[in-house]
């Protein structure tokens, strides 16, 4: 059994993807050509964002958004410690200071009340993370941003296609902040065959800034308006993503269906906490997360039966050796720390055979029948 099997998806679309690759290679244009523009338009249309700019990775999407917002030394950016390192790493890479705020233990996303209490005169932005495939509480964060003149950079790396009701309207992840950052890392809900990412923005000026920053500050070849970076999405990855994009909706629906089956089967086990979807959210289940104080024993039990699981994430960012410079102590963010000890990601991908799901469910039931 696999926790994710990327080959299964390739097999279902092999002809379509092979054709897209061959066509690109024969076309002879590999950087900033028509595939990238077509993908940018398609993602902008799908999410309702005004502009979309293809970049090299989700990490670079965050970094270039921070740069475009002018964030640098002396600035503070608030984010969650319960996320992938890139979220805070890019803040530090700009010379700014990542300031952590604990999570809501139900949804694992940033606690907006605590964000309000953490804003200082140095705060320039907030990076909410739409963890596991559901959006952070954007309405409260947008209100705070407006009041304190902050930029909001959504880390939507795990949530392409997720939605939230905002002021009575259904809005897509990545399309509501000042910037929205998408990752097309191969294991994400829409995955490339290499690194790829995208920045969304409703502000045309910021979009323009990112599109120049990704390409050496240049619009016209060999003329440079400012210093930038080399962080373009390439034509081959864009061609693959364009071939896959029409299927994203059905893949996300398949994830939701599988998540529903897990929840239905596991609800009777009292010592398990199952995913909780906040009112107004649709969750695209990039991961299906169980929570139990017996996590490590359960994980070993499943592993012995050939059922792979993962932990997202075992060590919160404030306790990472890489961030000792921030001088956070243990127990600074108790909810994130307990979550790191208790969460377990079950195997889940759109093509997952039902027999694998049944096997996983039976093993979990057996573990708790023995234990309790
Ligand atoms: C994957 C991911 C990133 C980084 O994306 P890459 O494309 O791998 O650089 C950032 N934040 C979160 C929450 C992620 O899951």
Question: How would you portray this structure in words?
Answer:
- The protein is α/β, with parallel strands linked by helices and 372 residues long.
- It has helices spanning 6-27, 34-47, 58-68, 86-93, 112-118, 138-148, 204-213, 235-244, 248-266, 295-304, 334-342, 354-371, and strands at residues 51-55, 76-79, 97-100, 123-127, 151-155, 163-166, 169-172, 179-183, 197-201, 281-282, 288-291, 343-346.
- The strands form 3 sheets. A 7-stranded mixed sheet has the order 1-9-8-5-4-2-3, with helices on both faces. Strands 7-6-10 form a 3-stranded antiparallel sheet, with no helix packed on it. The protein has a two-stranded antiparallel sheet with strand order 11-12.
- Helix 6 links the parallel strand 4 and strand 5.
- Helix 3 (58-68) crosses helix 7 (204-213).
- The relative contact order is 0.17.
- The mean pLDDT is 97.
Range of strand content: 5-15%
Largest sheet: 7 strands, mixed
Query: Uncertain regions: pLDDT < 50 for 5+ in a row?
Result: none
**Could you say which overall geometry the principal axes of the C-alpha atoms support?**
globular
H/E series: HHEHEHEHEHEEEEEHHHEEHHEH
Overall average pLDDT: 97
Structural class: alpha/beta
Strand order of the largest sheet: 1-9-8-5-4-2-3
Number of helices: 12
Please provide the count of β strands. 12
Radius of gyration: 21 Å
Q: Whole-Å distance between the termini?
A: 27 Å
**Share of residues in helices:** 40-55%
């Amino acid at each position: 059994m696999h926790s994710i099997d990327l080959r299964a998806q390739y097999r279902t679309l092999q002809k379509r993807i092979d054709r897209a690759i061959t066509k690109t290679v024969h076309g002879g244009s590999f950087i900033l050509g028509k595939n990238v523009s077509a993908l940018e338009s398609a993602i902008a249309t799908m999410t309702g964002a005004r502009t979309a700019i293809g970049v090299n990775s989700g990490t670079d999407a965050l970094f270039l958004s921070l740069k475009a917002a002018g964030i640098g030394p002396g600035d503070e950016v608030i984010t969650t410690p319960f996320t992938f390192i890139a979220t805070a790493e890019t803040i530090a890479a700009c010379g700014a200071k990542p300031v952590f705020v604990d999570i809501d233990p139900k949804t694992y996303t940033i606690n907006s009340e605590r964000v309000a209490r953490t804003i200082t005169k140095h705060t320039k932005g907030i990076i909410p993370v739409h963890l596991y495939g559901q959006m952070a509480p954007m309405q409260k964060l947008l209100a705070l941003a407006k009041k304190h003149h902050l930029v909001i950079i959504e880390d939507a790396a795990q949530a392409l296609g997720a939605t939230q009701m905002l002021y009575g309207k259904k809005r897509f992840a990545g399309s509501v902040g000042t910037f929205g950052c998408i990752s097309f890392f191969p294991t994400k809900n829409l995955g490339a065959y290499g690194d790829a990412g995208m920045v969304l923005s409703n502000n045309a000026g910021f979009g323009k800034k990112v599109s120049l920053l990704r390409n050496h500050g240049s619009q016209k070849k060999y003329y440079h308006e400012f210093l930038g970076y080399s962080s373009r999405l390439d034509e081959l990855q864009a061609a693959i993503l364009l071939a896959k994009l029409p299927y994203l909706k059905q893949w996300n629906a398949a994830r939701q269906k599988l998540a529903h089956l897990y929840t239905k089967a596991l609800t009777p086990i009292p010592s398990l906490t199952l995913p909780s979807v906040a009112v107004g959210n649709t969750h695209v289940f990039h991961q299906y997360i169980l929570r139990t104080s017996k996590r490590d024993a359960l994980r070993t039990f499943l592993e012995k039966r050939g059922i792979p699981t993962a932990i997202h994430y075992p060590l919160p960012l404030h306790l990472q050796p890489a961030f000792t410079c921030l001088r956070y102590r243990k127990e600074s963010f108790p909810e994130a720390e307990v979550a790191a000890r208790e969460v377990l990601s079950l195997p889940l991908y759109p093509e997952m055979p039902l027999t694998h799901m049944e096997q996983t469910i039976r093993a979990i039931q057996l573990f708790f029948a023995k234990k309790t």
